[in-house]
Known about the structure:
By secondary structure, the protein is an all-alpha fold. The protein has 5 helices and no strands. 82% of the residues lie in helices and 0% in strands. Helix 1 packs antiparallel against helix 2 and helix 1 (2-36) packs antiparallel against helix 5. The two termini are 18 Å apart.
Amino acid sequence: MKSSFYSLKINLGLLFSGLIVMFSGLLIQINYHMVNHGGTDINKAVWSLSRTEWSMIHKISIIIFSIFMAYHIILHWQWFKAVISKKLISKNKLIIMLSFVFILVAITGYIPWLVSLICGDNTIREAFVEIHDKIALILIGILILHISKKLKWFKAFLKKRIPNY
Length: 165
């Protein structure tokens, strides 16, 4: 029972921080990255926040999301080992694909931060941001599928704990 409450907390943390990551990332991508090629003012405010402020929200939520994701992976580590050792990958394609795409998005998202800190080469940084943006769109689709499949677990959890649910 303690483990399922811990799992619920991790899953809710992932859901809420993930929604903020997705929303802020899409907002930045649509309002600043895509339109910037046409000479649009990147200093314009969206919902009273500047690009810099949206970027800060995105970065902070990424860090929080990454922490929750690390706990989520630790929580399910035995499952990952069992899937690999028992060769059950074909039965778990969605989660394996989600894991792989998440890792790609994380790597291509963290590299621009490192590039800015280490050498500041804006061309390299922007190239990784563009790759990150495109792969993140794929990740959003896979996450929506994953979350929709996990709603059954959430409903079953609530049904066990809340009378007349």
